[in-house]
Structures are given as C-alpha cells and as structure tokens.
Amino acid sequence: MFNLILFGPPGSGKGTQSERLIARYGFKHLSTGDILRSEIKNGTALGLEAKSLMDQGQLVPDAVVIGMIRTALKENPGVNGFLFDGFPRTNAQAEALDLLLGEYNTSIQVVLALQVSKTELIKRLLNRGLTSGRTDDVNESVIGSRIEEYERKTAAVADYYKKFNKVAYIPGEGSVDEIFKKLTEEIEGRI
Ligand code: ADP
C-alpha cells in the first residue's frame, strides 16, 4: 500500500489536487471535511454536533474525526492506498492515524505539504464561497478563524512527520498542472 497525506492550510488546493491524484493513481480518497459535510446533509447526530463548530471555523473534536477514519479504513479493505485530505489536523490525530494504520501493517509514506501565502488563501476561499455553497467560505471572519486554527493546531503536524523524514514541501501557487506535476514527482520518487 502507498498512503499519503495531502497537507496544507484551508484553500491550499488539497481538494483540487486530490481529485487528480486519485484519477492517476487510484488511491482511496479520505477527506474528513467531505465526510463531515455528508453527515450534516444526512442530518445525523454527528453532523449536528459538527455543524456549529465548522460554521465557526473551529476544529471538530479529535475523537469524532478519528472515529470516522477508523470506520473508513475498516470499510475499504484491499485498496492500493489511502489519500488523506484534511486529516490529520492535530498531533493527536496524527498519532492515532499511525496506530490505526499499524493495525493494518501499513503506514504513511509521504506528507505532501502545499505552501500558499495567507493573502492568496483568503482570496481563493472568498472566491470559492461564491459558488461552493459552503457556509464557512462566505464570511471573512470565519475564514480567518480557520486559518488561525491551522496555524495554532495543524501546522505542527508537519513537524510530527518531519521527525520521520516524511515531509515534502510543494509550492501551492502557480498553475494546477505545474503543482500536480511536482506532486507526482514526489510520489514517484517514493513509490
Ligand atoms: P478546508 O481545508 O477548506 O478548511 P475541509 O473540508 O477540510 O476544508 O474542512 C472543513 C471543516 O471541517 C474544518 O474547518 C473543520 O471544522 C472540520 N474538519 C475537517 N477535518 C477535520 C479534522 N481532521 N479535525 C477536526 N476538524 C475537521
């Protein structure tokens, strides 16, 4: 199995690049944001719990998202690899992921970290808010909170994987094709 984390702040292009990576390599895409939005749409208890936090730009509790990933791993036996998108977002989530993957005798091969400036992130998210239907993309103060949560809690996740030499930094500004090419080069150097 080849498992990777696509890492980066909100608006760094993880969703866009995930789609392309999946089309090329056949990874199973696990996006905690997508799973949470589908729980909200289906009106589940978990969705209800998550919605108010997401609307304020705050993280959902670790136990909730770790449980979602545990279920997703169980439901997808035999895949050739997982692409984690928007997870892990805290060091506790990263530690839990290592343990979970260990149960399947596998691990994370690489963390591809997209780097985008803050002004560009805000511009992209506001622009996405015009069409995405995502309530957390419309309001600049919610966008600000999401970026702050990233800086306070999530950025350190890259340091966690750096200890194991698993992080590759990729410039996330430029054309979608250029960025995709750099991502594939990193993957192919490690596959
Ligand atoms: P983005 O990367 O654009 O912020 P996501 O779809 O990844 O969008 O996440 C949207 C929201 O869902 C986050 O702001 C957060 O509230 C919640 N969320 C998603 N993944 C996690 C996670 N791993 N841990 C905690 N909260 C999460």
How would you summarize the topology of this molecule?
Blueprint: E1 3-7, H1 14-25, E2 28-31, H2 32-41, H3 45-55, H4 62-75, E3 82-85, H5 91-103, E4 108-115, H6 118-129, H7 140-162, E5 167-171, H8 176-188
Parallel strand pairs: 1-3, 1-4, 2-3, 4-5
Helix pairs in contact: 1-8, 2-3, 4-5, 6-7
The structure holds adenosine-5'-diphosphate (ADP).
Residues 10-11, 32-33, 36, 53-54, 57-60, 65, 86-87, 89, 93, 136, 146 line the site of adenosine-5'-diphosphate.
Beta-strand residue percentage: 5-15%
- Specify the overall morphology: globular
The end-to-end distance, rounded to whole angstroms, is 9 Å
Strand order of the largest sheet: 2-3-1-4-5
Taking all residues together, what is the mean pLDDT?
98
Derived from helix and strand composition plus strand pairing, the structural class reads alpha/beta
Low-pLDDT regions: none
**The biggest beta sheet, please?**
5 strands, parallel
What fraction, in percent, of the residue positions are helical?
Answer: 55-70%
Oligomer: single chain
Number of strands: 5
Ligand list:
adenosine-5'-diphosphate
The radius of gyration over CA amounts to 16 Å
Question: What report would you give on this structure?
Answer:
With 191 residues, the protein is α/β, with parallel strands linked by helices. 57% of the residues lie in helices and 14% in strands. It has 8 helices and 5 strands; from the N terminus they run βαβαααβαβααβα. The protein has a 5-stranded parallel beta sheet, sandwiched between helices. Helix 1 crosses helix 8 (176-188), helix 4 (62-75) packs parallel to helix 5 (91-103) and helix 6 crosses helix 7 (140-162). The longest helix is centred in the C-terminal third of the chain and has 23 residues, at 140-162. The N and C termini lie close together (9 Å). It binds adenosine-5'-diphosphate.
